[in-house]
Design brief:
The structure holds 2 protein chains of 2 kinds. Chain A contains 30 helices and 2 strands. Chain A is mainly α. Chain A has 4 domains: 64 residues, no CATH class; 70 residues, no CATH class; 282 residues, MetI-like (MetI-like fold); 211 residues, MetI-like fold (Orthogonal Bundle), CATH 1.10.3720.10. A two-stranded antiparallel ribbon of chain A has the order 1-2. Chain B contains 13 helices and 10 strands. The radius of gyration of chain B is 23 Å and the shape is globular. The two termini of chain B are 44 Å apart. The relative contact order of chain B is 0.18. The chains are: A mainly alpha, B alpha/beta. Chains A and B meet through helix 4, helix 6, helix 11, helix 17 and helix 21 of A and helix 1, helix 3, helix 4 and helix 8 of B.
Chain lengths: 695, 313
């Protein structure tokens, strides 16, 4: 009798205590880990790679659809003959041409050129008529107009900032690449915003669309951008348009999500008020609901702009001209100073566009002001004046700088001042003084931590991995979570890249742990005052758009082509969201609870430990999600240093015969690692928030 | 958008009617698209070849592209040519694309390339490993080339695995020094340059994969002399792998329509052939003299008219 009672008691205790469940899970995991024998034929050790055929089939399908399906004859004037092409190829290429037309149009307004004229005439026409060249706007006109725009939208501080940014870009001789980057961002960003709004609204109206869209968005946001570069080039070709299209794929998902979030948050009363006033459906959506959801939608626009510029470097892998391409070139020459200046240009463009678009969206139209023509069109007139003035100045410039560069018209690339020697000296100094000291640390870390950790991951039988991941899923979210997590892992286990995925997982685990520790410490310190919080959030925003490629070279110089280098680059990048979420979490703890604590006489540390941390914990945990995604992205970029993980194979897919299929499958593997973690953490955070009464 | 597209379309149709009848050997005025990758000699040579085409009255456009993905782009006509197809690094991508159709071989440069493991010149000068560049010397000094993660062995820093697969690990086996050396695959050429630069500052021993002509020629780079390459000596071809690299070719590739659309430019392109020295000059103008790529190309074209003019005639 006593034994059964004790037994029932134990089962009850296990049911109640998640910690105990976790303990038992780990025990079972360890037993499997050490008892299953490594052998190719043992399915408990490694699953057979049943999916190995999928990338090949995927490739064949895409190639068939693109190049063989529905053949049509196209007249080619250049070779005077009909050529066989495929319908889908012609469709996607016409789409490419349309996108390219707009990019070229904006680019030629800013920098001058012939292609827009060609679009309306022909290359023959342009080559026969010397005069058929569109002149560039002098850089002074573009810069001054942007400053006026800043002033008109927000006031003198924004104007000053814009002046600083444009001045920096011009003075450092990066005007041309900056305008090239700007021209494709000015096409990609509006497309992303519009697509995001439309899909967001559609998902808001239809539950079914939402249900289909959500998993796609999850994948799009966790899939490394490298993995869809090849498909984009096959479908749309190489060039600025391909860069823009890849950027749109990357930048649209957060916009959809935030639009949907915003619309859902609009109180029903607002919609009802609109209906009572007799709005049509369209009016209700665009005049009532969308404006009410403005706050979230604007965050979406901000995200789109940040993502667009974060893609500037990667887009140059498939033909986007501009700052990103020049940055890769200078990294190849190990000119870190130059790369840094280019990186700062990218950040400045991001911030300027972000601030201008926010100011524009927040500007209210004053319907009642009774103004004269000159008053109403004040800024238009000023810009017109600037245009005339700038052109005159550029004209004077042709006499002033005879034969040389007309600095009043366009400053050619890399003909400005540069701080490169300073940075170069800095890097040299760093290598000279730190290299020797760091070697001990590097060796110790590799021998004592990284190699054993990697071997431990690679020595994990697949059955044990499933038990552990699904078990954690079960403890957190019950059977449903266990199955979801298991599904993600099963997909990876059935590909031929399971071992590669384990290496990716090992690097991600290490980087995420270190990033979380660093991020939490910095975050907690900075969250102590409002000013330092604001400051660190601005720093985080800036670093998020700063091209992470630049970290790669200095870390190699200090740590060599080793996992240490990769991990340090990853940690630098992944700590950004860790800091952000810690600060936000702590700052968002309800003031009333803090006051209650203060009145009960807690010390500063007690308050942090007993009130702020527990309440901010769900938000921290969501931060982990972001840290994981950032870490995975950077591990993939870290493949350029030299790794053996999924990233290396994604890079390799760029030249593979089965590039499309391999790239996509590998991308999905990375995405599924991220999504498995995401699912567990979001489920946990949701329960926790409900428990704390925060929902 | 609709209007502009219709306009553009009708313009294209009009153009094809207007000029369709002019069936002669003249080059199309449509731009020749030349890819630029991320290393100096290739970018300068892109502008050099572009300058040649322009001197013949052609229009040229430069497209940044990934050096591996570019062959697919040439195949589909998104890029017209590629002027530096290195045998061991891009041979696979080049022939893959050719298999699918759409890429043609437009001849070979005079420059013989060598892609091989080697050491910076100071390693020889300072006698860090006596007996180099003969490979036998490696047996006695693995510790000179050891790194933090090589577990006491000497490390060979090889290019990405996508370049030559397991060629180097197999060579170590074949030479019988696999117990003393280990291969580490770098992820990109940049990673190799960064390691070389860092090693140079400390005058550290380092063995890396490298090639010539390359900008590292200027600083001095010595290739290790392995047993001579013979056909079939590699493991993949049935040998034991104990041989060095052969002298390789550097080809030029073009889209299959290029000869038809731009016959004159195509002829010039097939005649174009640069030597190792000339390619080295192009790279040095950027890497040593710190000129911009465009300026370097202009200077090279101005200084070497005797070299390139004959190609265009």
């Amino acid at each position: 009798m006593g034994d059964t009672a004790a037994g029932v008691n134990l089962v009850e205790r296990i049911k109640r205590s998640k910690l105990l469940q976790l303990f038992l899970l780990i025990c079972a995991f360890l037993i499997l880990y050490f008892t299953i024998t490594p052998s190719e034929n043992n399915y408990l050790w490694r699953l057979p790679s049943l999916f190995a055929i999928v990338p090949i089939k995927l490739n064949e399908t895409v190639n068939y659809l693109m190049f063989d399906w529905f053949p049509i004859d196209i007249w080619n004037a250049d070779i005077e003959d009909y050529e066989e092409s495929a319908l889908l190829k012609e469709i996607t290429r016409s789409f490419s041409r349309a996108v390219l037309f707009f990019i070229e149009l904006i680019r030629e307004i800013l920098l001058g050129g012939k292609k827009t004229i060609v679009a309306f005439t022909s290359w023959d026409f342009v080559s026969e008529n010397e005069w058929a060249v569109w002149p560039a706007l002098p850089w002074t006109v573009v810069a001054a107009s942007a400053v006026v725009l800043g002033y008109a939208l927000k006031g003198k501080w924004l104007a000053l900032f814009v002046a600083f940014a444009t001045g920096y870009i011009a003075v450092f001789g990066q005007w041309e690449p900056a305008m090239e980057t700007l021209s494709f961002v000015l096409v990609a960003a509006p497309i992303s915003v519009i697509l995001g709004l439309l899909f967001g609204i559609w998902a808001f109206k239809s539950k079914r669309v939402e249900a289909i869209l959500m998993p796609l968005l999850n994948i799009a946001q966790t899939m490394p951008h490298f993995s869809y570069l090849v498909p984009v080039t096959v479908l749309f070709g190489v060039g600025d348009h391909a860069g823009a299209i890849a950027t749109v794929i990357f930048a649209t998902p957060p916009m959809i999500r935030l639009t949907l979030l915003g619309l859902k948050a609009v109180p029903p009363e607002v919609g009802e008020a609109g209906m009572m006033n007799g709005c049509t459906k369209t009016q209700l959506m665009f005049k009532v609901l969308v404006p009410s959801a403005r706050q979230n939608i604007l965050v979406g626009v901000n995200q789109v702009i940040m993502q667009c510029l974060a893609m500037a470097v990667i887009a140059s892998f498939i033909g986007a001209k501009g700052l990103g391409y020049n940055l890769l070139l200078s990294l190849n020459q190990l000119r870190i100073g130059q790369a840094l200046e280019l990186g700062i240009c990218i950040v400045l463009i991001a911030v300027v566009l972000d601030k201008l678009s926010l100011a524009w969206a927040k500007k209210q139209i004053d319907y009642f002001a009774d103004q004269s023509f000159a008053q109403r069109h004040k800024y238009g007139l000023i810009v017109f004046g600037i245009l005339i003035g700038g052109c005159v100045l550029a004209f004077i410039g042709t006499y002033l700088f005879q034969g040389g560069i007309n600095y009043f018209y366009l400053i050619p690339h890399n003909k400005g001042i540069t701080t490169e020697p300073f940075w170069q000296a800095g890097v040299d100094w760093m290598v000279d003084n730190w290299y020797a000291q760091l070697q001990g640390f590097n060796r110790g870390l590799i021998i004592n931590v990284l190699v054993p950790m990697k071997n431990a991951y690679l020595g994990m039988p697949v059955a044990a991995t499933f038990l552990l991941t699904m078990g954690i899923g079960f403890i957190v979210g019950g059977l449903r979570s266990a199955l979801i997590v298991g599904g993600f892992i099963l997909f990876i286990a059935l590909t031929e890249w399971w071992d590669r995925a384990l290496i990716t997982a090992y690097m991600a685990t290490f980087a995420v742990i270190v990033s979380m520790i660093l991020g939490t410490i910095v975050g907690v310190v900075c969250a102590q005052s409002t000013n330092s919080s604001k400051f660190i959030l601005v720093v985080c925003d800036t670093l998020q758009t700063f091209p992470s490629f630049i970290y790669l070279i200095p870390v190699i110089m200090l740590f060599g082509v080793t996992d240490t280098s990769v991990l340090i680059a990853v940690i630098v990048y992944a700590t950004i969201p860790a800091i952000r979420y810690t600060v936000e979490g702590l700052r968002n703890v309800p003031q009333a609870l803090l006051d209650a604590g203060n009145m009960s006489g807690v010390t500063r540390l007690q308050r942090l430990r007993t009130i702020e941390f527990p309440l901010a914990l769900p938000h921290f945990m969501l931060g982990i999600n972001q840290v994981v995604v950032f870490a995975l992205f950077m591990i993939i970029i870290g493949a350029m240093i030299g790794t053996e993980d999924l990233g290396q194979y994604i890079l390799k897919a760029l030249s593979d015969k089965n590039g499309i299929g391999n790239g996509l499958m590998l991308g999905l593997c990375v995405a599924f690692i991220g999504l498995a973690v995401d699912h567990v953490i979001s489920t946990w955070a949701k329960q926790r928030r409900a428990m704390l009464g925060l929902e | 958008m609709k209007i502009t597209k219709t306009l553009a379309m009708s313009a294209v149709v009009a153009a094809s009617f207007a000029f369709g009848g002019m069936a002669n050997a003249a080059d199309s005025s449509k731009p020749i698209k030349i890819p630029t990758h991320n290393w100096s000699s290739q970018v300068v040579m892109a502008y050099v070849i572009g300058g040649m085409f322009e001197s013949m009255g052609g229009t040229v456009e430069y497209v940044p592209a990934d050096s591996q993905a570019v062959y697919e782009a040439i195949r589909l006509g998104d890029v017209t040519i590629s002027h530096e197809v290195w045998q061991s690094t891009f041979g696979a991508s080049f022939y893959n694309a050719m298999d699918k159709g759409g890429v043609i071989d437009a001849g070979t440069h005079e420059a013989a390339t060598l892609e091989e493991m080697g050491v910076p010149k100071y390693v020889i000068d300072m006698d860090l490993c006596p007996g180099l560049p003969n490979w036998e010397a490696l047996k006695d000094c693995p510790e000179v080339f050891a790194t933090a993660d090589s577990d006491g062995k000497g490390r060979w820093l090889e290019g990405p695995q996508s370049w030559h697969g397991d060629l180097m690990p197999e060579r170590l086996e074949g030479l019988g020094i696999a117990d003393k050396y280990t291969v580490k695959f770098a992820g990109s050429a940049d990673a190799i340059w960064a390691e070389l630069e860092s090693a140079k500052k400390e005058k550290r021993g380092i063995i890396t994969f490298n090639w010539t002509p390359n900008f590292t020629d200027a600083d001095g780079f010595v290739f290790i002399e392995f047993p001579e390459f013979t056909p079939g000596c590699r493991k993949a071809d049935g040998g034991d792998g104990s041989c060095g690299s052969p002298k390789g070719w550097m080809k030029k590739a073009a889209n299959y329509q290029f000869p038809k659309t731009h016959p004159a430019a195509y002829k010039a392109f097939t005649k174009t052939s640069f030597t190792t020295t000339q390619i080295g000059q192009m790279a040095a103008l950027v890497d040593i003299d710190k000129m911009s790529h465009e300026d370097a190309a202009k200077k090279w074209l101005a200084d070497n008219e005797a070299v390139w003019k004959p190609f265009t005639e």
